[in-house]
């Protein structure tokens, strides 16, 4: 059976028949023309429905749209601090590799043998592409003037997947050196000793990349679960116990590996402010249920405030 096109007026009529109050139809029309009906309605309605085709008594389109807007605003916040996390990781990888090997990032002996061809090919392709551009960039400048590009310059052109691949291809001793540095900073910032295994850390990076992709492509974040579970680490999950390890919230905890305490305080408080804005718009929905859909425990803010956000 073919799916028929529905006008904005017909879309609103469907919502009203399902019990959703549309108090300002002119404004609702404008919002639905700017925001995909499927994204708004199919993505977030479950939070204010009593069944798949019936909204809770008193539920409004304003409330539904507020949940949709919260998801978007949360993604903006997460992206900002993921970018800061990524900058830290780029710096750490570039510093320790350069300390040990200089600009020898195209030498296979400095990487795990079976992984070397892929990372070397990808890196060379990136350099060639940037050098082929008409506009001047840092890679072209260093290539022309010095005939080599320092890794601390080149790494800024890596996409996050490229950065993950580079770290994953490093020799074990170099991974350990970088992770010991990260663990030392973590203890200094958060007061917790942390053993970071390269195999576990690479899963952290995979999951962070997964969340990053959801955020960058503006996909639905609420109700999302990660494909891989994080390896349990009580000093990374502190001060929480018995958390699911395949959630957005667990990812936000792992970002403490890359963010200073000051950065993390601002991050957490910004999320809390977004939650407060959402709660002002809720009539039938429950902010706890919404946050639980991405792994936030009931007392997430209070516990973080008591232990570190001071």
UniProtKB/TrEMBL annotation:
InterPro entries reported for this sequence: Abi_system_AbiD/AbiF-like
Name the record gives this protein: Abi family protein
Organism name: Lactococcus lactis
């Amino acid at each position: 059976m073919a799916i028929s096109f529905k006008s904005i007026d017909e879309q609103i009529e469907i919502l009203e028949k399902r019990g959703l109050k549309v108090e300002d139809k002119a404004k609702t029309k404008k919002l639905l023309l700017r925001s995909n009906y499927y994204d708004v309605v199919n993505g977030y309605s479950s939070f204010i429905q009593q069944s798949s085709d019936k909204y809770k008594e008193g539920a409004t389109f304003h409330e539904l749209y507020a949940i949709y807007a919260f998801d978007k605003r949360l993604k903006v916040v997460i992206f900002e601090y993921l970018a800061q996390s990524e900058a830290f990781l780029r710096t750490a990888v570039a510093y320790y590799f350069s300390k040990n090997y200089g600009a020898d990032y195209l030498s296979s002996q400095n990487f795990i043998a079976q992984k070397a061809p892929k990372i070397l090919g990808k890196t060379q392709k990136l350099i060639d592409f940037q050098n082929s551009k008409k506009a001047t960039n840092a890679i072209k400048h260093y290539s022309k003037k010095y005939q080599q590009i320092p890794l601390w310059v080149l790494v800024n052109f890596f996409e996050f997947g490229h950065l993950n691949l580079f770290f994953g291809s490093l020799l074990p001793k170099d991974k350990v050196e970088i992770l010991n540095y990260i663990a030392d900073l973590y203890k200094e910032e958060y007061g917790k000793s942390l053993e970071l295994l390269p195999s576990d850390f690479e899963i952290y990076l995979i999951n962070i990349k997964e969340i990053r992709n959801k955020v960058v492509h503006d996909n639905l974040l609420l109700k999302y679960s990660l494909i891989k579970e994080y390896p349990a680490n009580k000093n990374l999950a502190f001060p929480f116990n018995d958390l699911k390890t395949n959630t957005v919230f667990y990812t936000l905890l792992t970002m403490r590996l890359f963010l200073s305490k000051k950065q993390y305080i601002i991050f957490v408080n910004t999320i809390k402010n977004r939650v407060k804005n959402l709660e002002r718009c809720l009539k039938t929905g429950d902010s706890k249920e919404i946050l639980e859909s991405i792994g936030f425990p009931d007392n997430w803010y209070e516990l973080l405030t008591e232990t570190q956000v001071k």
